[in-house]
Structure to design on (307 residues):
């Protein structure tokens, strides 16, 4: 009997064979169906816009819609670029967006480094004051900013007192400089820089590195994901910015692409084939920038604490 009891103990119990968890599988299936349906709803207008830009006006409004053009061509794009100074508008938007993005990354990273890694009296209070500016609507500061730009000395025919001319109005200076830094950019980069160990910076200081060298050679390379996320945010916003160029710009040579497209729509309300081509041209650069920096963008948002 003792031998039989010992043999029973040595025999491993059989593991229960678990069947498929139908409830879990059903839940995942519902989630995937909803995600696919949402993706189709959001992507379908852009697909139709691209398809319509390759068709004639008569084919655009054909029912059922022609998702695949029967005779696709680039004639709408050629006519669109010939209609106005679209090339000039495209250059203005690219120049302003790239310049503002560069200034945002430069000045905001310097301020974020000071708030995250430097100790000075009133640092936290100054940072809270900077965050408080995010609560002020842009429309509130529109008129003061306009007046300041109008009275910039020695620009646009102004004298030393800022009188007699238009200052930075209707100029690249007025389009770029007021957007050169933002509280959101400082906050985003500061949150990411706080994850960098202070021991790494202290070791660089012991080796004799200056603060600017630490910022340029240590902090900035480690902040590439956050910089990529901020760059995408800034470039996208500036590329699509319509309101500020509408207030500042009065000459046709300085119009940006959104402003030029809006005026094109007013003049050509029924030329839908050209409007679709222009919309594709305006959307394509932002899409390319996002696809190129998508990996850094997701990582920068995940590690910056912006949720």
């Amino acid at each position: 009997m003792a031998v039989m009891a010992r043999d029973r103990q040595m025999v491993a119990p059989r593991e229960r064979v678990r069947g498929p968890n139908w409830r879990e599988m059903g839940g995942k299936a519902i989630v995937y169906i909803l995600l696919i349906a949402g993706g189709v709803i959001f992507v379908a207008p852009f697909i139709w816009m691209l398809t319509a830009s390759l068709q004639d006006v008569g084919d655009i409004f054909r029912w059922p819609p022609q998702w695949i053009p029967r005779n696709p061509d680039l004639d709408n794009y050629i006519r669109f670029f010939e209609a106005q100074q679209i090339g000039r508008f495209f250059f203005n938007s690219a120049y302003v967006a790239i310049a503002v993005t560069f200034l945002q990354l430069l000045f905001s990273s310097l301020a974020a480094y000071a708030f995250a890694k430097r100790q000075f009296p009133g640092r936290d209070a100054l940072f809270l004051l900077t965050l408080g500016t995010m609560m002020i609507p842009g429309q509130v500061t529109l008129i003061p900013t306009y007046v300041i730009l109008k009275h910039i000395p020695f620009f646009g025919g102004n004298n030393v007192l800022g009188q007699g001319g238009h200052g930075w109005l209707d100029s690249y200076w007025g389009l770029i400089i007021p957007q050169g830094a933002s509280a959101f950019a400082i906050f985003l980069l500061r949150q990411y820089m706080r994850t960098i160990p202070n021991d790494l910076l202290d070791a660089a200081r012991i080796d004799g590195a200056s603060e600017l060298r630490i910022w340029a050679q240590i902090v900035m390379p480690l902040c590439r994901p956050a910089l990529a996320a901020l760059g995408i945010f800034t470039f996208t916003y500036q590329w699509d910015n319509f309101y500020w160029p509408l207030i500042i710009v009065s000459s046709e040579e300085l119009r940006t692409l959104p402003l030029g497209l809006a005026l094109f729509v007013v003049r050509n309300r029924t030329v839908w084939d050209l409007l679709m081509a222009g919309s594709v041209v305006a959307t394509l650069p932002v899409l390319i920038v996002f696809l190129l920096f998508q990996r850094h963008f997701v990582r920068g948002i995940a590690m910056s604490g912006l949720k």
